[in-house]
Amino acid sequence: MIRRCLAALIVVLTAGVAAPSATAAPPSKKVSVERVPLADAAPEVPGKGREIRRSKPFAMAALRWNGKNPDLVEVQAQHLDGTWGEWQRLPAVDGQDRGRPGGKQASEAAWLGDSTAIRVRAESGGAPVDAKTVSVLLIDPGAAQAASTAAKPTVISRAEWGADESLRTQCFQQQAVGVEYGDTVRAAIVHHTAGTNDYTAADSARIVRGIYAYHASELQWCDIGYNVLVDKFGQVFEGRYGGLELPVWGAHAQGFNKDTVGVSMLGEFTSVAPSATQLESVAQVLAWKLAGNYRDPSGEVTMVSGYGGSSAKYPLGTSVTLPVIHGHRDVGYTECPGNLAYQELPALRQRVSELMGDWTAGAIYRKWQATGADAGPLGGVYELERDAAGGGRQTTFAAGAKSAYWSPATEASLVEGMIRDKWRELSAEAGPLGYPRTDELSTPDGSGRYNHFAGADGSIYWTPWTGAHEIRGLIKAKWAQLGWENSPLGYPRTDELGTPDGVGRYNHFDRSNGSVYWTPGTGAHEIRGAIKDRWAQLGWERSYLGYPTSDEYSVPGGRRSDFQGGYVVWDAATGSVTDRRY
Questions:
Q1: What integer pLDDT is reported at residue 98 of this predicted model?
Q2: Which of 90, 298, 535, 557 could join 107 in a cystine, given CB atoms 3.0 to 4.6 angstroms apart?
Q3: Model pTM?
Q4: pLDDT band at 83 (very low <50, low <70, confident <90, very high)
Q5: DSSP strand E in 67-109: where?
Q6: Bridge partners (DSSP) listed for residue 261
Q7: Residue 533 CA to chain centroid, in angstroms?
Q8: Protein fold of 165-358
Q9: Helix segments in 293-428, DSSP class H
Q10: Taking each helix axis from N to C terminus, what angle separates 345-356 and 276-292, rounded to the nearest 10 degrees?
Q11: Edge-to-edge order in the sheet of strand 566-571
């Protein structure tokens, strides 16, 4: 039998049947979760289950139990005005693929609104379950806030909806784990959170906070399971920590959390359809994620189940072909995202396609295709394609190891490793080197790697012994004139630097103790070996010699370099070095 998104328990929790106080304490600003054994609730009342009452209000609830899932789990809450809400079914949770093991099963967390009492019904085989095996979690998600007006940014960040990051970091520390990432985003899974659809725009952040606290602390998932959540008013909330641009490994669909994005609509859509505003926001989120990851929203994808849990529809290692946009029920034994939401998936795919436009026209996409797409050396998109400085575009591949950049003036080019690190240190495309104009290439001597860049005729060269260093302009031109890395200078061992007197620029090189110095008045000239040592002893450019005005050149019996105020000669027979004024 297909398991409902929220398991069915028939238990009503009420610590007493007295009328609620008119002066009930207001909700706190911090998320808190109280665990109440069902056995501590008031005795079972036919049709009403067991009841729990509290002086401190709560706004969400969930159940945990030992052993087999009950056939029915339902809750009913008493609001602050004394009225009882509708009964809500709580589906069994289906979340992360791995993590801290435990014998307890759990329901989804349901939004109840501010309440001081709850009734719980939990049944198996038409009879109440053993109350000793069940706990009720009463969640206070903090005080209500004004409805978000954040149209910019489109996504309400974790900080904006009030995530208590200590819940995540403490859980990570306890489990010795951290944020996990997949390789790319290959598909999108649509969910609903279940529970009521009766909430205000101001309630939404509270609901998200409550789900987060429940998933992170009670279920020990260390964070909220979904990557993105969308309410019926179209507000979009950042979900699982780690960056919406990245393939964060969620906890929303056992076996298929890796390389998917889980988008959950706040509400229950078995009998009520999601709002048009909600669906449009879901479409916008998916269009952004799928276009930036080069995925066809109307296509199919073959994935392999990564987990064989009780709620996973496919055993570990099973290869499954699915629509790129599919529902939770397609991979798990659940009704999620509800019949009426599931019926909207064809229209959702069409709308996402419309919003994505001609997403295959980009230069980076074409380069990715030319290298073999997912099967090539780049693999899938890791950090989704997005805008870069000056009207360009950028993305990363190969689990973040390789980046591709394009601008209107340059072709799509790849930059990676220590060369990319150095370029980013120099402010990447917004820095003096601008955009890459070549991929990373091998030097003719086979020892180094390099990229050329569009700005300042710049390049970055790397070897295992020098690391990565930039060289540009007339200094680079002089190095090229001398024979690049095959010259007496070898490879750059510094970036281009400014001289202490503020007039000149220079690079040091790894061979012959060589350097190239430049000033506006002298141009660029190389200097090396014993002649450079003498110049250094005299005080470099602040000595009477000033800056080099020639490269080192041959003279009878030795070598010579000329300077603004004199010259230095090296005697090949004796090794002596002499400096003289003109």
A1: 53
A2: 90
A3: 0.78
A4: confident
A5: 71-79, 88-89, 104-106
A6: 188
A7: 51
A8: Lysozyme-like (3.40.80)
A9: 339-342, 345-356, 363-370, 417-425
A10: 50
A11: 553-555, 558-562, 566-571, 577-581
Instruction: Enter the tokens of residue 458.
Output: 């710049």
- The one-letter amino acid code at 190 reads V
Return the domain boundaries, the chain: 32-94+104-140, 165-358, 363-503, 521-581
Collapsed DSSP state (helix, strand, coil) of residue 148: coil
CB atoms within 10 A of CB 26: 12
CB count in 10 Å sphere of residue 38: 27
Mean pLDDT of 372-397: 94
Mean pLDDT for the chain overall: 89
Place of tokens 């190891």: 401
- The position carrying tokens 């790319």 is 184
Residue 39 identity: A
Q: In CATH terms, is domain 32-94+104-140 a member of 2.60.120?
A: yes
User: Is there a common fold for 32-94+104-140 and 165-358?
Assistant: no
**Tokens linked to 277:** 């505003």
Q: How far apart are CA 489 and CA 222, in angstroms?
A: 54
What is the distance between the alpha carbons of residues 244 and 261, in angstroms, rounded to a whole number? Answer: 9
Record the tokens describing residue 46, joined without a space. 């036919």
